[in-house]
Design a protein that fits this description.
CATH superfamily: P-loop containing nucleotide triphosphate hydrolases
Number of helices: 9
Number of domains: 1
Radius of gyration: 16 Å
CATH architecture: 3-Layer(aba) Sandwich
Bound molecules: cytidine-5'-diphosphate
Largest sheet: 5 strands, parallel
Helix content: 40-55%
Order of helices and strands: EHEHHHHEHEHHEH
Shape: globular
CATH class: Alpha Beta
Structural class: alpha/beta
Distance between the termini: 11 Å
Length: 206
């Protein structure tokens, strides 16, 4: 059996991590976990009155398939619960177990290369300007029927960037050995190709 191969993909809100991670996982035949969903599940539960730490401790894999996790309200709630040390601690084992599953996995989030999987074999840090990220997220949200203005989405993205970058626990930052990919001027296809090339450099020949 070959050793697991873990790919960590971090970066700010709406940088394209999800699209890139999914494509990279498919290319290399690995499982993919969008760790933002864990925080979104916990954030969504706080909107209906559940305590954040209790929600994180009770999280199950099935919860990640819940509807309505992609709304702007849930995104804000997610980034608010994500500053709580006990919430982050409660979610660590699930993420590490996923990362080390047979064959390996791609995990995307904010602290995968720095805290969750500092030993990941390949690390990417995906960025783009706040304006471009907000525009992409606005297109996604309006296409899925959300009634939001471009300005509201930019304000939301900047507020989350600020909170994610400046928190004490596991702040958003590139790991020292991460390959940075700025997708501001790239097509989706180019960004995916750049990510596959960066990972191929780290992957042993099989
Ligand atoms: O999809 P998008 O980039 O907008 O956000 P997400 O990845 O679903 O993450 C939602 C929120 O969860 C982020 O703003 C972070 O505050 C938090 N998060 C985190 O703290 N650590 C992670 N590994 C993933 C998400």
């Amino acid at each position: 059996m070959t050793a697991p191969f873990t790919i960590a993909v971090d970066g700010p809100a709406a940088a394209g991590k999800g699209t890139i991670s999914k494509a990279v996982a498919e290319h290399f035949g690995l499982a993919h976990l969008d760790t933002g969903l864990l925080y979104r599940v916990v954030g969504a539960k706080t909107l209906t009155g559940t305590d954040a730490i209790a929600a994180a401790l009770a999280l199950r894999a099935e919860d990640l398939a819940a509807a309505n996790l992609r709304t702007p309200e849930v995104a804000q709630a997610a980034s608010k619960v994500a500053v709580i040390a006990e919430v982050r601690a409660a979610l660590i084992d699930f993420q590490r177990a996923f990362a080390r599953r047979a064959g390996g996995a791609v995990l995307d989030g904010r602290d995968i290369g720095t805290v969750i999987c500092p030993q990941a074999e390949a690390k990417l840090f995906v960025t783009a300007s706040a304006e471009i990220r907000a525009h992409r997220r606005w297109l996604e949200l309006t296409e899925t029927g959300h009634d939001v203005t471009p300005d509201e989405v930019l304000t939301d993205v900047k507020a989350r960037d600020e909170r994610d970058t400046n928190r004490a626990e596991a702040p958003l930052k590139p790991a020292r050995d991460a390959v940075q990919i700025d997708t501001s001027e790239m097509s989706i296809a180019d960004a995916i190709s750049a990510a596959i090339v960066a990972v191929s450099d780290k992957r042993p020949q099989r």
